[in-house]
Write a structure and sequence with these properties.
The protein is α/β, with parallel strands linked by helices and 416 residues long. It folds into two domains: 146 residues, Urease, subunit C, domain 1, CATH 2.30.40.10; 224 residues, Metal-dependent hydrolases (TIM Barrel, Alpha-Beta Barrel), CATH 3.20.20. It contains 13 helices and 23 strands. The chain has a six-stranded mixed sheet with strand order 5-4-1-6-22-23, with no helix packed on it. A six-stranded mixed sheet has the order 3-2-7-19-20-21. The protein has a six-stranded parallel sheet with strand order 13-14-15-16-17-18, with helices on both faces. The protein is globular and about 60 Å long. The structure holds zinc ion.
């Protein structure tokens, strides 16, 4: 989907969540989008919205950047063989995930463990997901190379030229001992790769135990499933990563929920929440749910008693910072991947942020990618109390058919 060269306005925003943990809420009620990018942020009357072809009235609801899921295991298309999962990526898009990042295409039968096979798998994923957008809009960064014996510096150069820029979570499969992977990580960095490593005991037969000291030696950009994947490590290991390293630390939905509470509490004490990143680690045998990122936001905000806007930054801007992506924040020049959330019908929270803080899962009322409306809500995601207006027309879910079965896109083309 190409960015459209037209003007889109989002007006009457109730609360504007920035995705920037240093300033989680922006004082503004209007966003103007031009050519798929955020062009202006300000107050009604300050921004000229008259030229906008599409005017979204947020009706006082909460606007946030689209979520980024930094921990997924896609393989090809919107199909992952291990769970026979079809359409799971589109499902996540409809629940507000507008960008997905691969941690390795290892959920395939007959996973190759040689350099040629692994390079082929990563290149195939990087190239196909560059063009293929699940649900017509989801931005997928596929093609995460697994480190295996025999890879040379030339391989990393070749891979970078082919569009591969991710190293799959070290410890997930393949080589993991610092003595084997540190030289490869050095080559990877030279060619612009981002590197992840997993903390924890073994999870699947091909995975390997990696503890804090080894991860610190590897020095990745992101330590994944620090709250367990799904089995957690002794808490001293988590503390060590918080205290003795400065890379980002991921808490995942498919982890240990109690370890997540302890991890986030400790990061807050150490003023390190700008390093917190929220991921799903899906699809796995432990679960494959479209709202994993939203559920994790709710879990952390409610159980750690943190402001929802700060936790949303850990699912948006912090992740964009980790991987150097121009999404994840409401900021002039960023790609306009934006969602509008509302409290679920019947919630005691007065808006989506309050609902999250008391543990209620909000619903989406609009999902936008590159300034284009791609959906109003997910399949059977929570029915919201309010709704948006598009070009003056209220778009409310009224019937059971609309709510459960769709059309979830409400024939968007005819709306604007
Ligand atoms: Zn994983």
């Amino acid at each position: 989907m190409d960015a459209i060269s037209e003007i889109v306005a989002i007006e009457n925003i109730g609360k504007l969540v920035s995705g920037d943990i240093n300033q989680p809420i922006l004082e503004a009620d209007t966003i103007l989008i031009r050519d798929g990018k955020i062009a202006e942020i300000g107050w009604k009357g300050e921004i000229d919205v008259e030229a906008a072809k599409t005017r979204v009235d947020a009706m006082g609801l909460v606007v946030t950047p689209g979520f980024i899921d930094p921990h997924t295991h896609m393989v090809i298309g919107d199909w992952t063989p291990i769970q026979k999962a079809i359409g799971w990526m589109e499902g996540a898009l409809l629940a507000g995930v507008t960008t997905m990042i691969s941690q390795g295409e290892n959920n395939i039968g007959g996973l190759p463990m040689d350099p040629a096979g692994n390079k082929a798998l990563a290149i195939l994923a990087a190239k196909t997901y560059k063009k293929y957008r699940p649900g017509g809009a989801l931005k997928v960064h596929g093609g995460a190379l697994m480190l295996v014996e025999g890879l040379t510096e030339q391989d990393f150069k070749e891979m970078a030229e082919a569009g591969v820029w991710l190293i799959a979570e070290i410890g997930g499969c393949g080589l993991y001992k610092p003595k084997d992977v540190v030289p490869m990580v050095k080559w990877a960095r030279k060619y612009g790769f981002k590197v992840s490593a997993h903390l924890g005991p073994v999870s699947i037969p091909l995975s390997a135990p990696l503890m804090a000291d080894e991860i610190i030696e590897i020095n990745p950009d992101l330590a994944v499933h620090v709250n367990g994947g799904s089995t957690s490590v002794p808490f001293a290991e988590v503390k060590k990563l918080v205290d003795d390293a400065d890379f980002h630390l991921e808490a995942v939905f498919n982890g240990n929920p109690r370890a997540a509470v302890e991890m986030v509490d400790y990061m807050r004490k150490k003023d390190a929440l700008d390093r917190l990143v929220i991921g799903s680690d899906t699809p796995t045998g432990n679960g494959m749910i479209p709202v994993a990122i939203l559920r994790m936001v709710v879990q952390i905000a409610s159980l750690n008693r943190l402001p929802a806007a700060e936790v949303i930054a850990a699912a948006t801007g912090n992740t964009a910072d980790t991987f150097g992506l121009n999404v994840g924040k409401i900021e002039v020049g960023r790609e306009a991947d934006i969602i509008i959330l509302d409290r679920p019908a019947g919630s005691q929270g007065r808006d989506a942020l309050e609902a999250i803080e008391i543990g209620d899962i909000p619903g989406t009322t609009l999902i936008m990618v590159d300034g284009q409306i791609v959906a109003l809500r997910g399949r059977d995601t929570r029915q919201t109390a309010g709704c948006v207006k598009i070009n003056g027309v209220e778009r409310k879910v009224t019937t059971m058919e609309d709510y459960l079965w769709g059309p979830w896109k409400f024939a968007i083309d005819r709306l604007i």
